[in-house]
């Protein structure tokens, strides 16, 4: 991955100058905290080093990159992992990352930004649909489930630093860490 922590020679693969006994020289494929070597999956970090993860399938896909504020989301085709930990009860087939919507469905007069600014190179908000629910990844390990929002969209109004979610007649304050996952009810359309 071009990372100075990883190197290999004809006999060994190294992480932070330490030889990894279960790894063989060759292709390394990175996805969040995981690296695939042959048909084996390893999890790595600067504190615990590199560990073989026999419970993770090698068909990894990075769903959302980690950043200073958010953990990485990775799928192995069956399960979803947040920072290398399996999210219980979630299946990859039911999981879909969400992107901001503009125009906002059902609110054609609402003025919004076509995209939400990023922090560095990473989106500021990680939201995903699971069935009729939405998961809001608030930080490295905090996930809030917004229940029964089959038509959920999120957006940033023009001239505002707020990011809002909307479903039917409920409004959600996405960039407020103390918001209620029930949302606030309203009637009619939002304009402006």
Describe this structure in words.
With 192 residues, the protein is mostly beta strands. It is built from no helices and 21 strands. The chain has strands spanning 6-8, 13-15, 18-19, 28-31, 34-37, 40-45, 49-52, 61-64, 73-75, 80-82, 85-86, 95-97, 118-119, 122-123, 126-130, 133-137, 143-146, 153-155, 164-167, 170-173, 184-185. The chain has a four-stranded antiparallel beta sheet with strand order 4-5-6-7, with no helix packed on it. A four-stranded antiparallel beta sheet has the order 8-9-10-11, with no helix packed on it. A four-stranded antiparallel beta sheet has the order 12-15-16-17, with no helix packed on it. A hairpin with a 2-residue loop joins strand 5 (34-37) and strand 6 (40-45). The mean pLDDT is 87.
Keywords:
192 residues, mainly beta, 4-stranded antiparallel β-sheet, 21 strands
Structural class: mainly beta
Count the E strands. 21
Oligomer: single chain
Strand content: 35-45%
Mean pLDDT: 87
Portion of residues within helices? under 10%
Strand order of the main beta sheet, please? 4-5-6-7
- What string gives the helices and strands in order? EEEEEEEEEEEEEEEEEEEEE
Q: Which radius of gyration do the C-alpha atoms yield?
A: 20 Å
Task: Give the topology.
Layout: E1 6-8, E2 13-15, E3 18-19, E4 28-31, E5 34-37, E6 40-45, E7 49-52, E8 61-64, E9 73-75, E10 80-82, E11 85-86, E12 95-97, E13 118-119, E14 122-123, E15 126-130, E16 133-137, E17 143-146, E18 153-155, E19 164-167, E20 170-173, E21 184-185
Antiparallel strand pairs: 1-2, 2-3, 4-5, 5-6, 6-7, 8-9, 9-10, 10-11, 12-15, 13-14, 15-16, 16-17, 18-19, 19-20, 20-21
